[in-house]
Amino acid sequence: MKDFLKEILVQNQERRPLKELKHGNTDLSLGMDKIQVIIRPRRVRKTSAMLLAIDELITKRDILKEYIIYFNFEDERVQFGPAHLDLILQAWQTSLEMDGHQVTLFPFIQVIILV
């Protein structure tokens, strides 16, 4: 399972926002050391905001894509829930060779709960 998750994480690292998306205000403060939550109605740019924020971290702030986790629990290939976050982090850690350096992690976790 960990190898499968590692494969998904690597595929998500290659994901980029569509060219037609505008780099506008994503309502995310990338300089904050706090968890941020995007609460919006369905189909109102939550995923786009995350992908644009990730793109900004990579292109404008020189963050290596390997230090960014994007994981979508609605991915049809994944059959578990948020309680398994530790397994995702373990898969990410095995995909990195950190050489004993401290790494700042930029997690982007997408969970959509229908009420």
Describe this structure in words.
- This protein is α+β, with helices and mostly antiparallel strands and 115 residues long.
- The chain has one domain (2-110).
- 31% of the residues lie in helices and 9% in strands.
- The chain has three helices and two strands.
- The protein has helices at 2-13, 46-59, 85-94, and strands spanning 68-72, 106-110.
- The chain has a two-stranded parallel ribbon with strand order 1-2.
- α3 links the parallel β1 and β2.
- The relative contact order is 0.23.
- The model has no long low-confidence stretch (mean pLDDT 78).
What are the main properties of this structure?
two-stranded parallel sheet, 31% helix, single chain, 115 residues, 9% strand, alpha+beta
Strand content: 5-15%
Shape call: globular
Q: Stretches where pLDDT falls below 50 for ≥5 residues?
A: none
**How does the major sheet shape up?**
2 strands, parallel
Helices and strands, in N-to-C order?
Answer: HHEHE
Question: Helical proportion?
Answer: 25-40%
Q: Return the average pLDDT rounded to an integer.
A: 78
Termini distance? Answer: 29 Å
Strand order across the largest sheet: 1-2
How many distinct domains? 1
Label the structural class: alpha+beta
Count of helical stretches: 3
- The Cα radius of gyration reads 14 Å
Q: What is the oligomeric state here?
A: single chain
Secondary structure tally: strands: 2
